[in-house]
Amino acid sequence: MRVHVGSDHAGLELKDHLLAWLRDHGYEPVDHGPFVYDADDDYPVFCLRAAEGVAHDQEAGQDSLGVVIGGSGNGEQIAANKVRGVRAALAWSEETATLGRQHNDANVVAVGGRMHPLEDMVRFVEVFLTTDFSGDERHVRRIAQLASYETTRELPPLPDSARDA
After folding, report:
1. Is 29 helix (H, G, I), strand (E, B) or coil?
2. Which of 49, 84, 149, 155 is the most buried (most CB within 10 A)?
3. What are the DSSP calls for 32-52, one per residue?
4. Cα(100)–Cα(90) distance, integer angstroms
5. 7: helix, coil or strand?
6. CA-CA distance, 72 to 57, in Å (whole number)?
7. Tens-place pLDDT, residues 67-76
8. pLDDT for residue 160 is more than 90
9. CA 82, CA 59: separation in Å to the nearest integer?
10. Domains detected in the chain
């Protein structure tokens, strides 16, 4: 599996460690930067490229996921979610990494390099990469609503239970 990775300066150490871990575990990492420490770098430059790589690969039928890393992971998740076809989940525990894949079919995981020890962050990524989407009808339906909105900008219809009487 190909894994696209992008970060900012706050995630650089974790990114470099993760790239070696990915290679050692049989993944094909693609490093979208940064390549040197620059405290003034901008995470969208690197995280958008990682997310675009995932979207492009998946559109071409390639088995591919992504990892974006920053101080908290919040901005990196927001950036990745701007790419059409990307569903990025912020993982701060093994459970959130699992649920991002099982329930949301997330194809990018965001992690905060300043939030947890290195070993925990790598474990969150490992769980994300090794968890499959459940395929449950309710999750498929919800993801389809998001994908439709992403394309059409039309809100899904309200259910009868949410309409004013």
Report:
1. strand
2. 49
3. -S--S--TT--HHHHHHHHHH
4. 8
5. strand
6. 26
7. 999 999 999 9
8. no
9. 16
10. 2-162 (3.40.1400.10)
pTM of the predicted structure, to 2 decimals:
0.94
Q: Catalytic amino acids? A: 76, 103
* Rounded Cα gap, residues 124 and 115, in angstroms: 12
Task: Identify the band that residue 163 occupies on the pLDDT scale cut at 50, 70 and 90.
Answer: confident
Plot region of 64 (φ>0 → left; ψ -120 to 50 → alpha; else → beta): beta
pLDDT (0 to 100) of residue 71? 95
| Kind plus residue range of the DSSP H or E element containing 20 | helix 12-24
Residues 145 and 103: beta-carbon distance below 8 Å: no
CA distances (Å), 62 to each of 32, 68, 94, 136, 141, in order? 18, 19, 26, 23, 23
